[in-house]
Amino acid sequence: CASQMFFSFTFGFTHSFLLMIMGYDRYVAICHPLRYNVLMSNCGCARLVSLSWAGGSVIGMMSTLIVFHLTFCGSNVIHHFLCHVFSLLKLACGKETASVTLAVILVCVSALMGCLFLIILSYVFIVAAILRIPSAEGRHKTFSTCVSHLTVVIVHYSFASIIYLKPKGPHSIDSNTLMATTYIVFTPFLSPIIFSLRNKELKNAIKKSFQRKFSPLSS
């Protein structure tokens, strides 16, 4: 159970950090295009990705250790399809349970909102740079490079905010499980599809596949 929670925290936080780095990438590409090859070199990108994984792993380990420092009593059945933190905290007993629950929520919300703030800040500068482009076609072409990233950010933070910020009612177990499952499975599955749709070769391959499939029927 501890390993499941650790990897769940790690992958979730790392995903947020990577989205933040991708926002920085778009900022550099649009606001400082002449310095892009220097700021986002292969070595620089590898360093940023490594820091994302290291940060996600550290926060995941800290959160897991905090939760499993508690004492658990009563039933050992978790009302979830995996070892989810809030489902596990409901099985804890003792005076420290409330403070640990608050600490976990603060850690999760602070990390998520910190990444979101930096993403929004990046797009403030991006929008300001786009508005300075004289032609409408140039503005549209430049902003279109950010659509995939913005879509993934909206999906990721919409589900995360519902899970961590929604009031926990007595009859919300099933809905919480459904939303957490959707967040854990649907978001990572959808992200590469959204980013791949900007690939012209992939779009042409999908178009040809549909044409081969439906053209015999139309004839």
Task: Explain what the structure shows.
The protein is mainly α and 219 residues long. The protein has 9 helices and 2 strands. The protein has a single domain (1-214), classed as Rhodopsin 7-helix transmembrane proteins (Rhopdopsin 7-helix transmembrane proteins, Up-down Bundle), CATH 1.20.1070. 78% of the residues lie in helices and 2% in strands. Strands 1-2 form a two-stranded antiparallel ribbon.
Keywords:
219 residues; mainly alpha; Rhopdopsin 7-helix transmembrane proteins; 78% helix
Please provide a brief summary of the model.
The chain has 219 residues and is mostly helical. The protein has 9 helices and 2 strands.
- The helix tally amounts to 9
The helix fraction, in percent, is over 70%
Instruction: Please give the domain count.
Output: 1
**Low-pLDDT sequence parts:** none
Rg over alpha carbons: 21 Å
Secondary-structure element series: HHHEHEHHHHH
- Let me know the CATH homologous superfamily: Rhodopsin 7-helix transmembrane proteins
Strands ordered across the widest β-sheet: 1-2
What is the annotated CATH architecture? Up-down Bundle
Beta content comes to under 5%
Major β-sheet profile: 2 strands, antiparallel
Q: What name does the CATH topology carry? A: Rhopdopsin 7-helix transmembrane proteins
Tell me the name of the CATH class.
Answer: Mainly Alpha
Please tell me what the overall shape is: globular
Number of strands: 2
The computed structural class is mainly alpha
What is the mean predicted local confidence, pLDDT? 77
- Give the distance, in angstroms, between the N- and C-terminal Cα atoms: 56 Å
